[in-house]
Amino acid sequence: MKNELEYICKNYVKNKQIEIFYYFDEKEANEIINYLFQSVSFNHPDFYYVDNKICYMFEHFEVDASYHSIHGGSKYIQDRIKVDKEIDDESVQLVKDIKPKQNEVTYAGTISKTICQNANINYLKENFENSFNHHYNQISKYQETLRDKEIIKNQRTTMVFVIEHTTDMGGFYLKDGECKSLNIEFLDFVISKMEASNDVEYFIFLEKSNHTFSIIKRDNLFKLKENLIDTKKNTICIF
């Protein structure tokens, strides 16, 4: 079983430093980040931190902008696994044309970019909403499991979603003629989803392309809305 907290530390904490963007009170935000790194690894939810009054439940899930088949999951993940196996078998040449229109790959064995046919904003929206809904519908089960294990007794629970955007090179969008880096927490459908999700108090977004944290509180979204990316009006390119 994958240790989600160990994975986050390995990939996002460099020399005991992390780059964090705050969208509400910085003191409160830092408390949540500290609870995250002091939490106990678990299964459903992925990890938790409990004190005398509150149990913080952390659930980590990934989203990308590639096509997801009904049975096979993310094509992006499937391709990456296949390519990594080729490299592990001591292949000394670039892996090419594994499948038509497949992701380009580097000699190092990681996918360098996903071509436009395989990555787009519609796939990102679909994948985000499917993953979000799946984990959101599990919240009551997370609470039940922690109670059954007597980890929580009289404490109230606070849900924290840790959402990782794993498209390797991220993306860009055009606004007022200027090309800007894309962080998915500014997308209109992401903000709408957060706003409507009363059972999640905090959201931590991990951006794989630049290894950053963004932490958001559901009842304090005004800073995000000031920079909202309208997917119907803005040109968005995802790699």
Give the mean pLDDT.
81
Question: How large is the radius of gyration?
Answer: 19 Å
The count of strands amounts to 14
End-to-end C-alpha gap: 29 Å
Portion in helices: 25-40%
Could you describe the largest sheet, including whether it forms a barrel? 7 strands, mixed
Write up this protein.
By secondary structure, this protein is of the alpha+beta class. The chain contains seven helices and 14 strands. The protein has helices spanning 4-12, 26-38, 75-88, 121-136, 139-148, 188-195, 222-226; strands at 19-22, 40-41, 47-50, 54-63, 68-69, 73-74, 104-105, 111-113, 156-165, 171-175, 178-181, 202-207, 212-217, 235-238. Strands 1-13-12-9-4-3-2 form a seven-stranded mixed β-sheet, with helices on both faces. Strand 2 and strand 3 form a beta hairpin. The radius of gyration is 19 Å and the shape is globular. Residues 87-117 have low confidence and may be disordered.
